[in-house]
Amino acid sequence: MAAADIAFLPNGSEGTRARWKYLDKVLDRPGPFTDPDSFVPGNHETLERAKVLGAGGLGCEILKNLALSGFKDIHVIDMDTIDVSNLNRQFLFRAADVGKYKAEVAAAFVEKRVKGVQITPYCGKIQDKDEEYYKQFALIVCGLDSIEARRWINSMLVGMVDGNDPDSLKPLIDGGTEGFKGQARVIFPTMTSCIECQLDMHAPRAAVPLCTLATIPRQPQHCIEWAHIIAWEEERKEITLDTDDPEHITWLFQKASKRAEEFNIPGVTYSMTQGVVKNIIPAIASTNAIVAASCCNEAFKLLTNANPFLGFPGTDNYMMYTGDESVYTYTFEHQKKDDCPVCGEEALARPLEIDPEATLQEFVDSLAERPEAQLKTPSIRTTEKSLYIQSAADYERMTRPNLEKKMKDLTAEGEEMLVSDKAFPTMFKYVVVWKR
Amino acid sequence: MNDKKQQKDAEAAAAASGKKKFSAADLRVIKDLEHLSLSDTMELKRELDNYKNFSLAINPDEGMYKGGHFEFAFEIKPTFPYDAPKVRCKQKIYHPNIDLEGNVCLNILREDWKPVLNLNAIFVGLQFLFLEPNASDPLNKEAAEDLKHNREGFKRNVRAAMGGGNVKGESFDRVMK
Ligand SMILES: [Zn+2]
């Protein structure tokens, strides 16, 4: 493509086909990987109908890319409000927006800039939304900034999969960055390796041995960690540390400074204290751009079939990008784990028909006969309580009285029930359904 | 009624009743706890429905800490097993790798923790600290110095501290079984 061709079309020229000239080229011609007999290239309609969800810290990049790629119905979730420190890279926000919700401002900005796109913001947590909500999308692009949020959306999407309904399977495209490093991955819940399977791919938190902190600090960060982990516990045990409370950070900063002085270590500052305690890894605009771009390209290919995409079952599904030492990228297939607690065979909650009038004892006996379980000494728990535990003698004694109770008094329809047996490495997860 | 229809009904009922699901951290910790292989020198103390907080007692039957009873409080965070559990010794003891507040210096609790490790690995690691206290990773500097330079004196201090006595002006908890 000649350089001149890449210029943005000016505002106001949308509505003409010219706007999508290059997209048309990608979508309408047979690509190098397309089979002329079976391949039907997608079109704008595919994209336009596709409802997609973007969320998280890479939000600006993802929204911009999706909108400019031809997606028309985009939803965005973000709970944060705009902070002055975001303005260097989150280009949809201006100084006047500080304090407003990111999702709202970003949605309004992109709707204004890319005509014909509809962006629906939700200012809150991804955890506020339920299955019904996530079901409406064709796919989900996430650029979340915490492991917790990633694990949550992952287990939500895995839990939604219904083998009889292909529409229940929502591809998850996940991007993440840490400084100069990042990754893009595509997950087909229950079919390919999930976030939980890949937990060990996350760089461990950089931790310094406790004894180094306690006895031979060498860096200002060591003094801060000491104040954070050791001094706080010693002197303010009764107060729960809130890393957003300036008084708490100030206290840690003063403690750390004093310690740094004792050991002759220069460099402890308030903002470094904040950074160490909140485990802030600097976000680099260009790394975010690279990773978000890769995620959105995969979203585009996945929905249009224009070219093979990352994550097709049985192929590579993980692209790691490292820019901290020169540039290196590596794409590979991360294998699904059979014993994954989220997507492994044992983790999928199967419906289990239970007679509400039966006693727990009768239920325990019936487990020994279920073909997939055949458990002779099962332990049974709901998310609320332990019904019958046989893995230790005293728990068995404590839970034995439950054996005479009726199932309807111990659990409820729709509740998750976990059945394990010390003799087997696997656990079985069920959803209670009353036998009618 | 087919399976899926049942599940849908069940899910609808669950959504209506606001039933929680097991989190990935819950599942992992339950699995770890179900498949412990505790030696005779270890005791797990856990309330029936509490997987997030429990304690482990270690009763060394050999080494310098033989005859003692040491309790560790475990706190499992929602980020487990990405993050290691928080572990603290509940008693004030004289040990080179455990400070007077109960902080423990064990590599797999911090810098060497990996999600593939399980609770059993930590239990074994803690037990090892009593068999082989380690002077090169000191959290209690004085105890480490004693161990390094005066092994007999260190042993005497261990016995005195375990009995609830004083060592160099510091009083310790009685931890004899
Ligand atoms: Zn998995």
TrEMBL record, chain A:
InterPro entries named in the record: E2-binding, ThiF/MoeB/HesA, ThiF_NAD_FAD-bd, Ub_act_enz_dom_a_sf, Uba3_N, Ubiquitin-activating_enz
Q: Name one Pfam family in it.
A: E2_bind
Q: Which GO terms describe its molecular function?
A: ATP binding; NEDD8 activating enzyme activity
Q: Does the keyword Cell cycle apply?
A: no
Domain E2 binding: start-end pairs: 352-435
**E.C. no:** 6.2.1.64
> Record's CDD domains?
Uba3_RUB (cd01488)
* Gene Ontology biological-process annotations: protein neddylation
Catalyses which reaction(s): ATP + [NEDD8 protein] + [E1 NEDD8-activating enzyme]-L-cysteine = AMP + diphosphate + [E1 NEDD8-activating enzyme]-S-[NEDD8 protein]-yl-L-cysteine
State if DNA damage is listed as a keyword: no
Pathway annotation from the record: Protein modification; protein neddylation
Q: Which UniProt keywords apply?
A: ATP-binding, Ligase, Nucleotide-binding, Ubl conjugation pathway
Q: Which domain of life is it from?
A: Eukaryota
The UniProt entry's GO CC annotations, sorted and at most eight, read: cytoplasm; nucleus
Functional description taken from the UniProt entry:
Catalytic subunit of the dimeric E1 enzyme, which activates NEDD8.
By sequence similarity, the record places it as follows: Belongs to the ubiquitin-activating E1 family. UBA3 subfamily.
The protein's name in its UniProt record: NEDD8-activating enzyme E1 catalytic subunit
Provenance organism: Didymosphaeria variabile
User: What is the gene called?
Assistant: uba3
TrEMBL record, chain B:
Per UniProt, residues of the UBC core domain are 24-167
- Is Nucleotide-binding included in the keywords of this UniProt record? yes
- Output the InterPro entries linked to this UniProt entry: Ub_conjugating_enzyme, UBC, UBQ-conjugating_AS, UBQ-conjugating_enzyme/RWD
Q: EC annotation?
A: 2.3.2.34
Report residue spans for region: Disordered.
1-22
* Coiled coil residues, start to end: none
Catalytic residues at: C105 (glycyl thioester intermediate)
Q: What is the name attached to this protein's record?
A: NEDD8-conjugating enzyme UBC12
The record lists the organism as Didymosphaeria variabile
